[in-house]
Description:
By secondary structure, the protein is mainly alpha-helical. It folds into 2 domains: about 5-60, no CATH class; about 65-150, no CATH class. It has helices at about 10-25, 65-85, 95-125, 125-150; strands spanning about 50, 60. The protein has a two-stranded antiparallel ribbon. The radius of gyration is 29 Å and the shape is elongated. The protein starts with 10 loop residues before the first helix and ends in a 16-residue tail after the last helix. The model has no long low-confidence stretch (mean pLDDT about 80).
Amino acid sequence: MAKSPSPSDDPLDGMSREVDRLLKQLPGADPTLRGSSPSSPPVSGVRPGIVTTPGGAAISERREPTARDKLGVWLRVGLGVVAGAVMTQWPYAHACGFRLYLYLAAVAAVLVAGGWGSLSSWKLRMGVAHVTSLMVIFWGLVLAAQQVLPRIGYAAVAASWRCL
């Protein structure tokens, strides 16, 4: 009959003990790994609610967004949507010259508004707002392409940057 190996004969047991020993030495380790009770004061340099990276930089844990945070995100996204929509009703001719540059600056503002909404919605994990702001960015790129591509020779119809 075969003899079952004892726990002390298992090479993985020694390795797991070594891993446990090293985990106990980590500054942000679970207090139960150190053998202390969870109610004991934290080890110096370790603050509750703060996670540290291997380099020692503190990363605060993610908190639940408030209604005010969500409203702020929707206002940013709404700003981008409104700016993108009114660009179709631009009241001035923008075929060349200063007015073209002014129009392109307004298109850049649409792109910035879309990016701002996109970053803030990504940060708060608001999916619908994020997709909406990505559509604003896409619309801004379409508006820019309508003006830039004919001027760089890509489109069939040529246009110039300056008025002659």
